Amino acid sequence: MPLPYVLLSAAVSLDGCLDDTGPERLLLSSPADFDRVDEVRACVDAILVGAGTIRADNPRLLVNSPERRAARRAAGRPEYPLKVTVSGSGDLDPAARFWHTGGAKLLYTTDRGAERAARSGIAADVVPLGAALDWRRLLEHLHDVRGVRRLMVEGGGTVHTQLLQQGLADELQLVLAPLFVGDPKAPRLFGPGTYQPGRLRLVETRQIEDVVLMRYEPTAPGTGPAATAADHHWLSLACRLAKRCPPSETAFSVGAVVVAADGTELARGHSREAGDPVVHAEEAALAKIAADDPRLPGATVYSSLEPCARRASRPLPCARLILASGVRRVVTAWREPDTFVEGADGSGVLAAGGAEVVVLPEYEERAKAPNRHLAG
Ligand SMILES: NC(=O)c1ccc[n+]([C@@H]2O[C@H](COP(=O)([O-])OP(=O)(O)OC[C@H]3O[C@@H](n4cnc5c(N)ncnc54)[C@H](OP(=O)(O)O)[C@@H]3O)[C@@H](O)[C@H]2O)c1
Q1: Which of 39, 46, 79, 111 is deepest in the core (most CB within 10 A)?
Q2: Is the CB of 57 under 6 A from ligand 1?
Q3: What are the CMP/dCMP-type deaminase domain coordinates in residue numbering (predicted)?
Q4: Domains and CATH numbers, the chain
């Protein structure tokens, strides 16, 4: 199921704290950075915070700039992004500013929390998600029912930690403020638990007055049938690689990337690469990796088109090459149509060989784009 693009936003002190323990909210960002945050808010469909942040900070979470609100209206969007919070307990102050400022509000909670919220007269749409709160279900609901395509999450640490650990965060926008908190009881950005192995990708650093913005993307592939944010990133790269293929009237243009479990890119390839008129994308990528590379069994192959099941130009089709390499997870955007081979079922070959195949149809149009002349 497609999910919104999830952007985590936070400011931390040099000792990694989100706040101090005083009654007032600690201002970590600089004025220009608060304005940048306002701009990011203006570009999203919804802003989410945990109930802990509502209790601690009593935030409004508005787009403050009248010009940005006017631009949203002019684009046919609501003046303010939807405000979303999560609470298992439903223990929320109905007088909090969150409920009485800005546009529409939404509370995701448990069945018990919904009863409590109803009793206290919370002014919001309340969506109970059963006995416990499941983040993937919550994001699916936001996407499918509320039309949220871009979600900004503004804390706190409990919420950020879960979204990152569950592979549901597409991007982390972290601002480092030049001050120390020093209080061992102060809330930290990320708690203990299992994070992605390996390193995240640093995509930007920006000095804004005396703070530094760092933007990171997760890199580690998922491990089962559910796609992670990093899976989306890699499949999107495979679709971009497909655009580099020399044109052909007799073969698809496909891009592929092979990624180790810790998020290291092992190789990439595309159809008809390096002057070989028949090489396939997955074949070109796998050929760049030593056959005994110990990272292959834990790796994921991303291919804009399902790996081929039959081919005349080489002894082995790509589905068999992938199985022979030891890779046991494939993420693809588009099942192979009957254009050149009738009833090709690379996914079936892979699954029969013990590989997990994940199809993300929301990328199908991008995978098809360099092949329009064939499909037509
Ligand atoms: N510097 C920054 O950028 C920044 C930004 C935001 C917040 N903050 C700071 O962060 C602190 C608050 O962080 P926090 O970690 O205590 O709170 P939080 O992450 O804002 O909210 C945690 C609460 O959300 C609900 N929740 C989260 N995950 C849940 C799940 N899986 N199931 C059910 N309920 C769930 C629970 O509410 P219930 O308890 O109601 O069940 C939980 O107590 C504050 O000090 C605030 O100032 C700083």
Answers
A1: 46
A2: yes
A3: 229-350
A4: 5-217 (3.40.430.10), 229-375 (3.40.140.10)
